[in-house]
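Lab notebook, bench 4. Continuing the backlog of folding jobs that were queued last week. Each job is logged with the same field layout so the records can be merged later without manual cleanup. Today's entry covers MBL fold metallo-hydrolase, a 256-residue chain. Filled in by technician R.K.

JOB TYPE: sequence-to-structure
TARGET: MBL fold metallo-hydrolase
LENGTH: 256
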Amino acid sequence: MTTVEITYVGGPTAVIELAGLRLLTDPTFDAPGAYPIGSRELTKTTGPARRPGDIGPVDAVLLSHDQHPDNLDTSGRAHLTTAPLALSTPSAEARLGAPVRALAPWERTELPRPGGGVLHVTAVPALHGPVGSEALVGEVTGFVLSGESLPRVYVSGDNASLDLVREIARREGPIDIAVLFAGAARTSLVPDAPLTLTSAQAAEAARILGARHVVPLHFEHWAHFTEDGATLTKAFAEAGLTERLHLLAPGASVRL
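JOB STATUS: finished
OUTPUT FIELD FOLLOWS
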Protein backbone atom coordinates (compact mmCIF):
# COMPACT_ATOMS: atom_id res chain seq x y z
CA MET A 1 0.00 0.00 0.00
CA THR A 2 1.19 3.52 -0.80
CA THR A 3 2.66 5.44 2.12
CA VAL A 4 1.51 8.81 3.41
CA GLU A 5 3.91 11.51 4.60
CA ILE A 6 2.57 14.16 6.98
CA THR A 7 4.60 17.25 7.88
CA TYR A 8 3.40 19.28 10.86
CA VAL A 9 3.73 23.03 10.28
CA GLY A 10 1.93 24.23 13.42
CA GLY A 11 -1.59 24.67 14.77
CA PRO A 12 -4.01 23.12 12.25
CA THR A 13 -1.54 23.34 9.38
CA ALA A 14 0.14 20.29 7.86
CA VAL A 15 1.24 19.03 4.47
CA ILE A 16 -0.14 15.60 3.54
CA GLU A 17 1.68 13.86 0.68
CA LEU A 18 -0.27 10.98 -0.80
CA ALA A 19 -0.40 9.32 -4.22
CA GLY A 20 1.96 11.91 -5.73
CA LEU A 21 -0.25 14.78 -4.52
CA ARG A 22 0.51 17.43 -1.92
CA LEU A 23 -2.39 18.67 0.21
CA LEU A 24 -2.26 21.53 2.72
CA THR A 25 -4.61 21.67 5.71
CA ASP A 26 -5.97 24.94 7.19
CA PRO A 27 -3.21 27.44 6.26
CA THR A 28 -2.01 29.54 9.23
CA PHE A 29 1.31 31.37 8.95
CA ASP A 30 0.89 34.56 11.00
CA ALA A 31 3.18 35.51 13.87
CA PRO A 32 2.22 35.16 17.54
CA GLY A 33 -0.12 37.83 18.87
CA ALA A 34 -3.74 38.73 19.54
CA TYR A 35 -6.19 38.24 16.67
CA PRO A 36 -9.67 39.79 16.83
CA ILE A 37 -12.77 37.79 16.04
CA GLY A 38 -15.90 39.86 16.46
CA SER A 39 -15.87 41.40 19.94
CA ARG A 40 -13.42 38.77 21.17
CA GLU A 41 -9.85 37.89 20.35
CA LEU A 42 -7.79 34.73 20.10
CA THR A 43 -4.15 34.71 21.21
CA LYS A 44 -1.54 32.88 19.19
CA THR A 45 1.44 31.85 21.32
CA THR A 46 3.83 30.31 18.77
CA GLY A 47 4.49 30.93 15.10
CA PRO A 48 4.67 28.27 12.39
CA ALA A 49 7.69 26.02 11.96
CA ARG A 50 7.67 26.78 8.23
CA ARG A 51 6.83 29.90 6.28
CA PRO A 52 4.61 29.91 3.15
CA GLY A 53 7.67 29.99 0.91
CA ASP A 54 8.99 26.83 2.57
CA ILE A 55 5.87 24.82 1.79
CA GLY A 56 6.33 24.52 -1.97
CA PRO A 57 3.56 23.97 -4.51
CA VAL A 58 0.45 22.12 -3.38
CA ASP A 59 -2.25 20.46 -5.45
CA ALA A 60 -5.11 21.41 -3.14
CA VAL A 61 -5.92 22.99 0.20
CA LEU A 62 -8.24 21.17 2.59
CA LEU A 63 -9.88 24.06 4.44
CA SER A 64 -12.09 22.99 7.33
CA HIS A 65 -13.51 26.52 7.68
CA ASP A 66 -12.57 30.12 7.06
CA GLN A 67 -14.38 32.08 9.77
CA HIS A 68 -11.83 31.72 12.60
CA PRO A 69 -8.28 33.16 12.50
CA ASP A 70 -6.77 30.08 14.12
CA ASN A 71 -7.81 28.05 11.07
CA LEU A 72 -7.27 30.61 8.31
CA ASP A 73 -5.27 33.73 9.11
CA THR A 74 -4.14 36.68 7.00
CA SER A 75 -1.00 35.01 5.65
CA GLY A 76 -2.94 31.80 5.14
CA ARG A 77 -5.57 33.60 3.07
CA ALA A 78 -2.86 35.05 0.85
CA HIS A 79 -1.22 31.65 0.45
CA LEU A 80 -4.55 29.98 -0.28
CA THR A 81 -4.97 32.15 -3.40
CA THR A 82 -1.78 30.64 -4.88
CA ALA A 83 -3.23 27.11 -4.76
CA PRO A 84 -4.99 25.72 -7.83
CA LEU A 85 -7.86 24.45 -5.67
CA ALA A 86 -9.20 24.70 -2.13
CA LEU A 87 -11.99 22.43 -0.91
CA SER A 88 -14.19 23.72 1.90
CA THR A 89 -17.73 24.48 3.03
CA PRO A 90 -20.42 26.16 0.93
CA SER A 91 -20.27 29.22 3.20
CA ALA A 92 -16.48 29.45 2.75
CA GLU A 93 -16.91 29.39 -1.02
CA ALA A 94 -19.50 32.18 -0.77
CA ARG A 95 -17.19 34.34 1.35
CA LEU A 96 -13.85 33.65 -0.33
CA GLY A 97 -14.59 32.80 -3.96
CA ALA A 98 -11.96 31.16 -6.17
CA PRO A 99 -10.03 28.95 -5.75
CA VAL A 100 -12.42 27.63 -3.08
CA ARG A 101 -14.84 24.94 -4.23
CA ALA A 102 -17.67 23.89 -1.95
CA LEU A 103 -18.30 20.30 -0.97
CA ALA A 104 -21.50 19.54 0.92
CA PRO A 105 -21.38 16.79 3.57
CA TRP A 106 -20.83 13.38 1.94
CA GLU A 107 -20.14 14.97 -1.45
CA ARG A 108 -17.07 13.59 -3.21
CA THR A 109 -14.69 14.99 -5.79
CA GLU A 110 -11.68 13.49 -7.56
CA LEU A 111 -8.13 14.78 -7.89
CA PRO A 112 -6.08 13.29 -10.75
CA ARG A 113 -3.00 11.41 -9.57
CA PRO A 114 0.27 12.07 -11.46
CA GLY A 115 0.81 8.38 -12.11
CA GLY A 116 -2.77 7.76 -13.23
CA GLY A 117 -5.96 7.13 -11.35
CA VAL A 118 -7.59 9.53 -8.91
CA LEU A 119 -7.62 10.49 -5.26
CA HIS A 120 -11.16 10.66 -3.90
CA VAL A 121 -11.84 13.50 -1.48
CA THR A 122 -15.10 13.16 0.44
CA ALA A 123 -16.42 15.95 2.64
CA VAL A 124 -17.65 14.62 5.97
CA PRO A 125 -19.64 16.47 8.65
CA ALA A 126 -18.06 18.22 11.61
CA LEU A 127 -19.56 20.02 14.59
CA HIS A 128 -17.38 22.78 16.07
CA GLY A 129 -18.80 22.51 19.59
CA PRO A 130 -21.82 21.00 21.33
CA VAL A 131 -25.12 20.32 19.59
CA GLY A 132 -26.95 23.60 19.13
CA SER A 133 -23.81 25.73 18.73
CA GLU A 134 -23.86 25.74 14.93
CA ALA A 135 -25.38 29.22 14.68
CA LEU A 136 -22.59 30.59 16.89
CA VAL A 137 -19.54 28.79 15.53
CA GLY A 138 -20.50 28.44 11.86
CA GLU A 139 -20.12 25.72 9.27
CA VAL A 140 -17.14 23.31 9.42
CA THR A 141 -16.16 20.27 7.39
CA GLY A 142 -13.81 17.31 7.60
CA PHE A 143 -12.45 15.16 4.79
CA VAL A 144 -11.79 11.52 3.94
CA LEU A 145 -9.10 10.74 1.37
CA SER A 146 -9.24 7.40 -0.43
CA GLY A 147 -8.36 5.63 -3.65
CA GLU A 148 -7.23 2.38 -5.21
CA SER A 149 -4.29 0.87 -3.30
CA LEU A 150 -4.22 3.91 -1.01
CA PRO A 151 -4.61 4.14 2.76
CA ARG A 152 -7.84 5.81 3.86
CA VAL A 153 -7.12 9.10 5.63
CA TYR A 154 -9.57 11.08 7.78
CA VAL A 155 -8.90 14.78 8.44
CA SER A 156 -11.33 15.81 11.16
CA GLY A 157 -11.25 19.59 11.03
CA ASP A 158 -12.57 21.30 14.17
CA ASN A 159 -15.00 18.55 15.12
CA ALA A 160 -16.12 17.96 18.72
CA SER A 161 -18.75 15.27 18.09
CA LEU A 162 -18.06 11.58 18.64
CA ASP A 163 -21.52 10.84 17.25
CA LEU A 164 -20.34 12.25 13.92
CA VAL A 165 -17.14 10.21 14.21
CA ARG A 166 -19.31 7.09 14.57
CA GLU A 167 -21.31 8.05 11.47
CA ILE A 168 -18.12 8.67 9.50
CA ALA A 169 -16.74 5.31 10.61
CA ARG A 170 -19.96 3.61 9.54
CA ARG A 171 -20.09 5.25 6.12
CA GLU A 172 -16.39 5.69 5.29
CA GLY A 173 -14.43 3.36 7.58
CA PRO A 174 -12.35 1.67 8.54
CA ILE A 175 -9.81 4.50 8.56
CA ASP A 176 -6.09 3.80 8.29
CA ILE A 177 -4.80 7.22 9.34
CA ALA A 178 -6.73 9.75 11.41
CA VAL A 179 -5.54 13.36 11.45
CA LEU A 180 -7.44 14.63 14.48
CA PHE A 181 -7.84 18.25 15.54
CA ALA A 182 -7.75 18.07 19.34
CA GLY A 183 -6.80 20.42 22.19
CA ALA A 184 -10.23 20.78 23.87
CA ALA A 185 -10.53 24.38 22.68
CA ARG A 186 -12.68 26.63 24.86
CA THR A 187 -13.76 30.24 24.41
CA SER A 188 -16.34 32.57 25.90
CA LEU A 189 -18.51 32.06 22.82
CA VAL A 190 -19.49 28.59 24.08
CA PRO A 191 -18.20 28.57 27.65
CA ASP A 192 -19.70 25.30 28.85
CA ALA A 193 -18.25 22.81 26.37
CA PRO A 194 -15.12 22.23 24.29
CA LEU A 195 -15.13 23.31 20.65
CA THR A 196 -12.77 20.51 19.54
CA LEU A 197 -12.01 16.98 20.71
CA THR A 198 -10.61 16.49 24.18
CA SER A 199 -7.60 14.19 24.48
CA ALA A 200 -9.78 11.37 25.81
CA GLN A 201 -12.23 11.89 22.94
CA ALA A 202 -9.38 11.78 20.43
CA ALA A 203 -8.35 8.39 21.79
CA GLU A 204 -11.96 7.21 21.62
CA ALA A 205 -12.25 8.54 18.05
CA ALA A 206 -9.20 6.47 17.11
CA ARG A 207 -10.88 3.38 18.54
CA ILE A 208 -14.18 4.09 16.79
CA LEU A 209 -12.48 4.66 13.44
CA GLY A 210 -10.24 1.63 13.77
CA ALA A 211 -7.35 3.94 12.89
CA ARG A 212 -3.94 2.29 12.91
CA HIS A 213 -2.23 5.68 13.08
CA VAL A 214 -3.28 9.00 14.62
CA VAL A 215 -1.56 12.33 13.92
CA PRO A 216 -2.94 15.13 16.13
CA LEU A 217 -3.14 18.72 14.90
CA HIS A 218 -4.46 21.95 16.39
CA PHE A 219 -3.78 21.13 20.04
CA GLU A 220 -1.16 23.80 20.75
CA HIS A 221 0.11 27.26 19.75
CA TRP A 222 -3.11 29.07 20.78
CA ALA A 223 -4.11 30.16 24.29
CA HIS A 224 -7.67 28.83 24.03
CA PHE A 225 -6.53 25.21 23.93
CA THR A 226 -6.98 23.62 27.36
CA GLU A 227 -5.25 20.29 26.64
CA ASP A 228 -1.94 19.56 24.95
CA GLY A 229 0.53 16.92 23.84
CA ALA A 230 1.03 15.65 27.38
CA THR A 231 -2.69 15.02 27.87
CA LEU A 232 -2.89 13.33 24.46
CA THR A 233 -0.01 11.02 25.40
CA LYS A 234 -1.70 10.21 28.73
CA ALA A 235 -5.14 9.62 27.19
CA PHE A 236 -3.84 7.29 24.49
CA ALA A 237 -1.80 5.37 27.08
CA GLU A 238 -4.84 4.95 29.33
CA ALA A 239 -6.84 3.69 26.33
CA GLY A 240 -4.11 1.19 25.45
CA LEU A 241 -3.49 2.96 22.13
CA THR A 242 -0.01 4.39 22.66
CA GLU A 243 1.40 2.68 19.57
CA ARG A 244 -1.14 4.43 17.35
CA LEU A 245 -0.24 7.99 18.40
CA HIS A 246 2.27 10.01 16.37
CA LEU A 247 2.83 13.26 18.25
CA LEU A 248 5.00 15.39 15.96
CA ALA A 249 7.21 18.32 16.86
CA PRO A 250 6.62 21.42 14.72
CA GLY A 251 8.46 21.02 11.44
CA ALA A 252 8.76 17.25 11.81
CA SER A 253 7.39 14.63 9.40
CA VAL A 254 6.18 11.08 9.68
CA ARG A 255 5.79 8.43 6.97
CA LEU A 256 3.00 5.96 7.56
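OBSERVATION: The first helix runs from residue 52 to 55.
SIGNED: R.K.
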